[in-house]
Amino acid sequence: MTDVLPAWTAAEGAHRAQELFAATFGDRPAGVWAAPGRVNLIGEHTDYNDGLCLPLALPHCTFVALSPRPDRTAVLVSAQGSGTRTVDLDTVGRAGTTHEVAGWPAYVAGVAWAMVEEGLDVPGFQIAVDSCVPFGAGLSSSAAIECATAVALDDVASLGLLQADDPGRARLGALCVRAENEIAGAPTGGMDQAIAMRGKPGHALLLDVADGSARHVPLDLDASGLSLLVIDTRAPHQLVDGQYARRREVCEAAAHALGVPSLRVVSDAVADGGEDLASVLARLHDDEQRRRVRHVVTEIARVRELVEVLESAPGGVLEGDRLAEAGRLLDASHTSLASDYEVSCPELDLAVETARSAGAHGARMTGGGFGGSAIALVDSASMDTVADAVAAAFANRGFTPPAFLLATASAGAGPVTGNLEET
Ligand code: GLA
Questions:
Q1: Separation of CA 72 and ligand 1 centre (Å)
Q2: Over the range 51-61, which residues count as b (16 or more CB within 10 Å of their CB) and which as e?
Q3: CA distances (Å), 134 to each of 8, 124, 167, 199, 384, in order?
Q4: Digit-coded pLDDT (tens) for 364-399
Q5: Which residues have a Cβ under 8 Å from the Cβ of 304 and sit 6 or more positions away?
Q6: pLDDT for 420
Q7: What pTM was estimated for this model as a whole?
Q8: CA 131 vs CA 134, 144, 308, 422: distances in Å
């Protein structure tokens, strides 16, 4: 039987972060907060096109133990890093400038920076970070650090955003996007921070990036005897490199060529019958743009279709034709990402193809691509068969052994100290 990477309980995560904090700073923290990683069910590379996506929060979280300091300094330590890092919050600079913050501390310091930029009064702090979200797996470990830091600072600085519920969570998520775009220098689209802040147990999040609205879509896979198996291909994955930025630029150039502010406008026009996709594509003279636009427009349509399938399932139970349709949509998403958007890689393709042949209802890469993870919708009873088949196929091709996780739709970021007795 293949091992599945367990999620820490809140108690375990809090304990680890507190211990690291005490060992480093010789004190107890003011509290512990957590934020989850994510997988995206469907709607890939749509967020920076003002599109729709449907992520869910993982049970795997990043935990931060934090205390405010009386000065403007952030002192950081991570169980996944070595030594402490000190950042002067008054001199944090944008990525690519003299005062840029190198490495993972940019995700933490960037959040404090974004808060100050937007007129929020946050203190210096010391912070210890520990995480069971695998790094570099395309599961948004960076958004998890940002969002855990954001809720911690919100709490210790009494900003009241978490208490303002969804609008406050949306605002905290947007601050984390600024940290990632401007301080860490990754031009990502906001899906990861939105789900890490706004996730709800038992639900995926239909995120409409055009207006920032979100709807929780029931996703009770257990009731349907299904599981969402995450296959971490362990192929290196890096969003700060040029490929992701290049995809974004081509989409923006295509929108410009079509005379619209974003490809979402095209997708809406196609959805309501005002335009047909073939004529839109015929207006583009660049083949790369045509293929990228076809992916974005068809992918946004697939998000709508999958939401319809999930919301129309009686009692939330996904079976029969609806289950087959959900699988077909996942498969079609992968094909489009691999052929039109060209963000897959041999490891992701092998994971997806093998999972399907071993009985998955549907499978696709998830996240930015170029490595990272795939998801497979499987009968819970055949999860081991699918995972074993993928592990065997990887061994056969000489790839690094993959890791497996289970994606159960979980909660967004928040404090954990108070919950310790319950977990
Ligand atoms: C990464 C980015 C997201 C999104 C996905 C692709 O995860 O962080 O904003 O663009 O890639 O859907």
A1: 32
A2: bbbbbbbbbbb
A3: 12, 28, 29, 19, 21
A4: 999 999 999 999 999 999 999 999 999 999 999 999
A5: 52, 271
A6: 47
A7: 0.96
A8: 8, 9, 34, 20
151: in domain: yes
369 Cα to the center of ligand 1, angstroms? 9
- Please give all residues whose beta carbon lies within 6 A of any atom in ligand 1, as ranges: 40, 44-45, 47-48, 188-192, 239, 367-368
Read off the pLDDT of residues 178-219 as tens digits, 9 standing for 90 and up: 999 999 999 999 999 999 999 999 999 999 999 999 999 999
Four-CA torsion 206, 61, 7, 391, nearest 10 degrees: 70
Q: CATH number for the domain including 148?
A: 3.30.230.10
Q: Could you give the number of structural domains in the chain?
A: 1
Tell how far the Cα of 244 is from the centroid of ligand 1, in angstroms: 9
230 vs 61: CA distance, rounded Å: 15
Ligand 1 atom nearest residue 191's Cα: 9
The residues annotated with a catalytic role in the active site are 192
> Is 316 inside any structural domain?
no
Q: Which domain holds residue 169?
A: 10-218+411-417
Flag whether 203 is in a domain. Answer: yes
The H-or-E segment that residue 68 falls in is: strand 55-69
Alpha-carbon distance of 77 to 103, in angstroms, equals 12
